[in-house]
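Hi U.,

Before I forget, here's the chain from the pilot set. I'm dumping it here mostly so it's searchable later in email.
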Amino acid sequence: MPEAESFIAAYTDVQPLPHIVATVSKLIADQESTMKDFEEVIKMDPVLVARLLRLINSPYYGLAQAVTSIGRAVAYLGMKNLHNLIVVDAMKAIFVARESQGAFSRKRLWMHSAAVSICAKMVAERIFAINGDDAFLCGILHDFGLVVEEQVAGESLQSICAACTSSADLLRLEREQLGTDHAEIGYLLTGKWAMGTAVREAIRDHHLLGEAIRPQSLTGILQLAEYLACRLGHGVLPKVTPNISASLLDHMRDNLDEYEVLIDDLPEEMAKAEAIYG
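Structure:
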């Protein structure tokens, strides 16, 4: 993946990657990590400390007594929730740092990523009764490769986005004109951030079509969530219709009642997420 690596290298020359994301990811992966380890990392970032304490003392949690220590805040949130909070903060700062002019919009991409992340968590927990933290993380990060491409080859990406009408078009044109695509870049980049293998592979394969993709896998959940988010008006590009594996469409048809309830509840869940993450 030399072209993808060169895009990442060029991007990080201009926009350093948030080291706290990689540090906390490594702590998550290390079974010997303790809450104290997380506290030591977080207390070095005053902005994150303020955000964390403001969140834990918000009406969303409704605690009887105010929490004033980082340790107690971390204990209330849990390590996975804390990890996702840090990733969302880091990504949002990068997405909204500047707006793009043309077919590709960072603001629209941020709204798409937020909608996909929330929908993915709902699909994981409501449809498959599994923990949705990793699905949420996949949703936030799955299209970050587009931000890298926009930073490094903005005019080319705008041209690509203006020409494509489907996610298959997007990948084909990226590979033809850039020598790589945003899914490949995202896969490599999340490796540098020490993300888990399943999360990285879901990001790499979120446009991959095939009967072998299981609906309950992270890749399947991410594809389902992106399809639903785009159908509800939260697409990356206004003209682009999402592609999805036929087996996943069959799965949705077989569980139509559950998905209709999920879709009805999505706006409320997005409002809750806004209260948590901003």
